[in-house]
C-alpha cells in the first residue's frame, strides 16, 4: 500500500509537469479511477482499462499507466488526453515521465493552448519542469478536418520551445505557409502563447495607400513597461518618401490613467518641414469625490491630421477640469484653449481661451414647496488680438473683445394637479449678473444687472384607452415674462440658436449666459402619443412661440425672429421591427421651411441601417454662407459569421456632389482577420486636397490573449 500511495502521488505530479511548476506545489489530492489496478512484483504498479486521473481542474485519460519504482518512471499508454481547465489540452499516443516530474517524453503528441493554438509534433520533451520542447512541429490556429486537410496558414518548424514561465513560444527554422504554399522563412521566431495578455514584440502590420502619400506600410512594435504601462512605436514608410514615427504611451495608476498619442513626419507634401501632432488624455480620482480630467491637443499644421487620417477634427481643444457630482449638488471648474484649423477662422480674433466655474445646489424650500436651486457661474473668454474695434473681417465682432462674467441665480418650480386633471405649474428665476468687457471701444465700464424671470404653465392631459391602442393628448400653454432692459451687452456665447422639443417650453432660448430672452411671450403647443397594441408607437409635437412685442433679439435667425416664431413640428415613429423614423421641421404659415431634418434607422441581428436628410437655410450669423442640403448613410451588414460589410456616405445635394464616402470589408474566421477599407474625401481647402485612402490589415489570431471571442467563426467541417 505504501507503493500504491507513492504511485498516486507521482500520478498527481504528472499534471503539474504538463501545466507548469506552480501547479506542482499545490496540495490537492489526486483521484485514480481504473477498471483494474494491480501490483506486479515488489516495484511495479499497473492501472489499466479506462484509466482516469483527476486533480483539481486537471483531468487525464489513458488506457494504461505503469509506475516502475526501480527506474522511477511513469509509463503511460495511449491514447492520452489531458485537459487543464479551458486553456490547455494535450493529446499523445504514449508517454514516459520521470517521478521527479521535471523531465519526460510524449510521442505523436498535440498541444492545444487557449482552445485555439494547435501545436502538433512527432514528440514532446519536458525539460527541467519549465520548458516543453516540440520536435518536427506544425503550429496553426486554423481548423483542420477531412473536408479541409490543409489549414489556411501554418508555421512549420524543426523545434518549438514553450517557456511556461515567460509564456512565450520560440521557433527554430520556422517556415510560414499559406494554403500549403511556403511564403517566407525565418531562422528564429518568437511569439506569445495565448495565455499571455501583454508581451513586447511586433504587432500586425497595416498597409495604406493615399493620393498624397502613395503606398505605405505601418509596422507597430509594442513594448511593455512593467505591469501598468506600455509604449507602441509604429514606423510608417511610403513610396512618396514619408518618414513617420507614430507613438502611443499608456500608463495606469492606482487613481487614474494617462495616455500620449502622436506622430512625427517628414514628407514630400511640405518639404523641409517637420510635421507632428500630440494628443494627451488623463483622468484621475483626486479624493473627496472630485475627479480631474485633462487633454492636450496640438498639431504642427492645419492639414497634417487629415493627410495621415489621424483625426477629422477642424478645431482642437485642450482642456483641464475638476468636477464633483452628488445627488443634489454639482461642481465643475475648467479651462479650455482652442485652436481652429479652419480657413475661415482666425485664431487671433476667435476666443482661444475660456475658463468656467459652475456650482449648483438643489433643495426643497419648506415654506414654498416644489423644487428650488442655487447656481453660481463664473466665465471668462480671451482673444489674442488687442484691437478694440472690428477691423472689417466680415464677422461683425470686435477683434480683441474679452469678457468676464459672474452670475448668481435662484430658481424655483412647483406643480399642482386640479380635480379636473389640469396641471398648473409656476416657475421663476432671479439672476444677478456682473459683466466686465475689455478691448472693446463700445464698453468702458463694468455692468451689474438683476434679471427676474417668471412663467405660469397649464397642461391638460387626456388619456383614451381601447383594446387597440392607448392615446395621450396633452395641450400645453406657457406664459413667460422677462423684463426688457436698456443694457446692451455683447453676445459672444449665444450665437447658435435652436428651436426644438427640448426648449419649446423654456424660459430662455439662448444657450449661453450672456443674453436673456426678454419680453412677454406665450409658448403654445400640443403633444400626442399613440401606443398601439401591436407594439408600435407614434409621437407628434406641434408648437410655436407668440411674442407680444418684437424686441429684435432673434433678428437674423430664421424660425425664431419676429412676433411669431415658425411652427415646430416633430414626429417620431417606432415600429416593433426596430425601425425608427424621426422628422423635425421649422416652417412658417405658408409652409416655407427654414429647417427640416429626417432620420431613419433600422437594425436587425445582422443588419444596421441609418440615414438622414437635412435642409437648413444659409445664415451668416451662424457662419453658414450657403444652404445646407445633405444626405448621409451609415450601414453595416453581417453577411455571415465571417463577412462584415460597411458603408458610410455623405452627399451634398446643394453642390451636387459626394462630400465623403467610406467602404469597409472585414473577413474573419478562427485563425485570420482581414480588414480592408476605401475612403474618399471630396472636399478641399487651402490646406488639404481631395484624397482617396485605401487601408489593409491582416492579423493572425491565437497568439496572445483576447482572441477567445473568435471561436464561433470557425469554418464548417461537415462532410
Written account of the structure:
Among the domains are: 1-102, Sandwich (lipopolysaccharide transport protein A fold), CATH 2.60.450; 104-195, no CATH class. By secondary structure, it is mostly beta strands. The longest helix has 18 residues, at 2-19. The protein is built from 3 helices and 41 strands.
CATH-defined architecture of the domain at 1-102: Sandwich
Q: How large a portion of the residues is in β-strands, by DSSP E?
A: over 45%
- CATH class label of the domain at 1-102: Mainly Beta
The level of helicity is under 10%
Counting helices, strands and paired strands, the structural category is: mainly beta
- Write down how many β-strands occur, each being a DSSP E stretch of 2 or more residues: 41
The helix count comes to 3
Query: Low-confidence parts lasting 5 or more residues at pLDDT below 50?
Result: 1-27, 706-712
CATH topology of the domain at 1-102: lipopolysaccharide transport protein A fold
Q: State the end-to-end CA separation.
A: 51 Å
Radius of gyration: 36 Å
Mean pLDDT: 87
Shape: elongated
Major β-sheet, in short?
26 strands, antiparallel, barrel
Structure summary:
With 719 residues, this protein is mostly beta strands.
Core attributes:
719 residues, mainly beta, lipopolysaccharide transport protein A fold, 26-stranded antiparallel β-barrel, twelve-stranded antiparallel beta sheet, 3 helices, 41 strands
Amino acid at each position: 500500500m505504501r507503493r500504491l500511495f507513492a504511485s498516486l502521488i507521482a500520478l498527481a505530479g504528472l499534471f503539474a509537469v504538463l501545466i507548469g511548476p506552480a501547479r506542482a506545489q499545490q496540495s490537492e489530492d489526486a483521484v485514480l479511477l481504473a477498471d483494474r489496478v494491480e501490483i506486479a512484483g515488489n516495484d511495479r504498479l499497473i492501472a489499466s482499462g479506462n484509466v482516469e486521473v483527476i486533480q483539481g481542474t486537471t483531468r487525464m485519460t489513458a488506457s494504461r499507466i505503469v509506475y516502475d519504482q526501480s527506474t522511477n518512471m511513469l509509463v503511460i499508454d495511449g491514447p492520452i488526453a489531458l485537459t487543464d481547465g479551458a486553456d490547455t489540452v494535450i493529446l499523445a499516443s504514449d508517454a514516459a515521465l520521470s517521478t521527479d516530474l521535471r523531465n519526460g517524453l510524449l510521442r505523436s503528441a498535440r498541444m492545444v493552448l487557449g482552445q485555439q493554438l494547435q501545436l502538433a509534433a512527432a514528440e514532446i520533451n519536458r525539460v527541467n519542469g519549465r520548458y516543453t520542447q516540440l520536435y518536427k512541429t506544425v503550429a496553426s490556429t486554423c481548423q483542420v478536418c477531412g473536408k479541409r486537410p490543409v489549414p489556411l496558414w501554418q508555421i512549420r518548424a524543426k523545434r518549438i520551445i514553450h517557456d511556461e514561465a515567460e509564456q512565450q513560444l520560440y521557433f527554430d527554422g520556422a517556415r510560414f505557409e499559406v494554403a500549403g504554399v511556403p511564403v517566407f522563412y525565418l531562422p528564429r521566431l518568437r511569439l506569445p502563447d495565448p495565455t499571455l495578455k501583454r508581451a513586447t514584440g511586433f504587432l500586425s502590420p497595416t498597409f495604406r495607400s493615399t493620393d498624397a502619400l502613395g503606398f505605405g506600410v505601418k509596422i507597430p512594435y509594442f513594448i511593455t513597461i512593467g505591469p501598468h504601462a506600455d509604449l507602441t512605436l509604429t514606423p510608417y514608410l511610403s513610396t512618396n518618401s514619408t518618414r513617420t514615427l507614430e507613438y502611443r504611451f499608456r500608463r495606469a495608476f492606482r487613481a487614474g490613467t494617462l495616455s500620449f498619442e502622436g506622430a512625427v513626419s517628414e514628407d514630400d507634401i511640405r518639404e523641409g518641414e517637420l510635421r507632428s501632432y500630440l494628443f494627451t488624455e488623463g483622468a484621475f480620482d483626486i479624493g473627496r469625490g472630485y475627479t480631474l480630467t485633462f487633454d492636450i491637443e496640438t498639431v504642427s499644421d492645419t492639414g497634417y491630421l487629415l493627410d495621415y487620417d489621424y483625426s477629422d477634427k477642424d478645431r482642437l481643444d485642450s482642456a483641464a477640469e475638476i468636477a464633483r457630482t452628488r445627488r443634489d449638488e454639482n461642481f465643475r471648474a475648467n479651462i479650455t484653449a482652442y485652436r481652429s484649423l479652419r480657413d475661415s477662422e482666425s485664431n487671433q480674433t476667435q476666443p482661444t481661451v475660456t475658463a468656467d466655474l459652475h456650482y449648483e445646489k438643489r433643495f426643497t424650500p419648506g415654506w414654498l414647496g416644489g423644487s428650488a436651486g442655487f447656481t453660481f457661474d463664473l466665465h471668462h473668454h480671451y482673444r489674442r488680438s488687442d484691437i478694440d474695434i472690428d477691423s472689417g473681417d466680415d464677422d461683425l465682432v470686435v477683434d480683441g473683445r474679452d469678457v468676464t462674467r459672474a452670475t448668481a441665480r435662484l430658481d424655483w418650480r412647483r406643480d399642482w394637479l386640479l380635480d379636473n386633471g389640469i396641471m398648473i405649474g409656476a416657475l421663476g428665476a432671479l439672476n444677478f449678473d456682473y459683466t466686465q468687457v475689455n478691448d472693446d471701444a463700445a464698453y468702458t465700464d463694468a455692468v451689474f444687472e438683476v434679471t427676474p424671470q417668471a412663467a405660469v404653465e397649464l397642461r391638460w392631459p387626456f388619456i383614451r384607452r381601447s383594446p387597440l391602442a392607448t392615446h395621450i393628448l396633452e395641450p400645453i400653454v406657457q406664459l413667460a415674462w422677462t423684463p426688457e432692459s436698456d443694457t446692451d451687452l455683447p453676445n459672444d456665447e449665444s450665437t447658435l440658436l435652436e428651436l426644438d422639443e427640448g426648449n419649446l417650453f423654456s424660459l430662455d432660448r439662448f444657450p449661453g449666459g450672456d443674453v436673456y430672452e426678454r419680453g412677454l411671450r406665450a409658448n403654445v403647443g400640443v403633444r400626442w402619443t399613440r401606443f398601439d397594441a401591436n407594439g408600435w408607437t407614434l409621437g407628434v409635437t406641434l408648437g410655436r412661440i407668440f411674442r407680444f412685442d418684437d424686441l429684435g433679439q432673434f433678428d437674423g435667425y430664421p424660425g425664431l425672429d419676429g412676433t411669431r416664431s415658425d411652427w415646430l413640428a416633430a414626429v417620431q415613429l417606432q415600429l416593433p421591427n426596430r425601425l425608427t423614423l424621426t422628422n423635425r421641421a421649422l416652417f412658417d404659415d405658408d409652409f416655407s421651411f427654414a429647417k427640416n431634418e429626417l432620420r431613419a434607422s433600422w437594425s436587425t441581428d445582422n443588419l444596421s441601417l441609418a440615414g438622414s436628410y437635412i435642409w437648413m437655410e444659409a445664415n451668416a450669423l451662424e457662419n453658414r454662407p450657403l444652404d445646407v442640403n445633405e444626405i448621409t448613410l451609415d450601414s453595416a451588414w453581417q453577411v455571415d459569421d465571417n463577412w462584415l460589410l460597411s458603408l458610410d456616405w455623405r452627399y451634398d445635394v446643394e453642390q451636387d456632389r459626394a462630400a465623403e464616402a467610406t467602404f469597409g470589408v472585414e473577413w474573419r474566421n478562427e485563425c485570420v482577420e482581414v480588414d480592408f477599407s476605401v475612403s474618399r474625401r471630396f472636399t478641399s481647402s487651402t490646406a488639404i486636397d481631395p484624397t482617396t485612402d485605401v487601408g489593409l490589415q491582416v492579423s493572425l489570431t491565437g497568439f496572445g490573449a483576447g482572441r477567445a471571442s473568435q471561436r464561433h467563426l470557425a469554418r464548417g467541417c461537415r462532410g
